[in-house]
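During the no-cost extension, the postdoctoral fellow (Dr. R.K.) reprocessed legacy sequence entries with the updated structure-token encoder. One reprocessed record is reproduced below for audit purposes.
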Amino acid sequence: MHDSQTYLIVAGLALAVIGFVAAKTNFVAIRSAIAASTWTSVDGEIESAGVSEGCDHAGASGSKRITFRIVIRYSYRLGNRTYSSDKSGSDGRIFSIFSSAQRAANQYATRKTIEVYVSPDNPMRSVIGVGMRWQWRYWLGLVVGAVLLGLGVVMILARFGVHA
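Re-encoded structure tokens follow.
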């Protein structure tokens, strides 16, 4: 096998796998957000907003980088019962700089009320409204994932002489 043929298979497989994972992950997020948007909407109260630190793997070398997500703790009433929840990364953004994440968290902390979507099947399951406005990122991720998957498949097929 020539080096160019090996490259087509390896690069095609890598792109196909990355594309599949990205497309599937974003599709699930979109489906969940659409379902949640039909749930009962109630006013909730922010109890606290802060930042959590995490770690992501970056690049082919597998190096780690520190990331920051917003954590919002909130409560809401449904009927005569009060529920409480916290959502990490609740607006879909991941930050690489702590001060940027803290600034975004502070915006939520200044709000007294927030829109909460509550599952009709399980009132303990909820989604806060601020996460819904970042839904476009999931659509973009789905499209990029599908393009990478398609490109990977085309590269693999090209190795075997099949032209799309």
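The chain has a mean pLDDT of 81. Residues 3-158 form one domain. The remaining legacy entries will be reprocessed before the final report is submitted.
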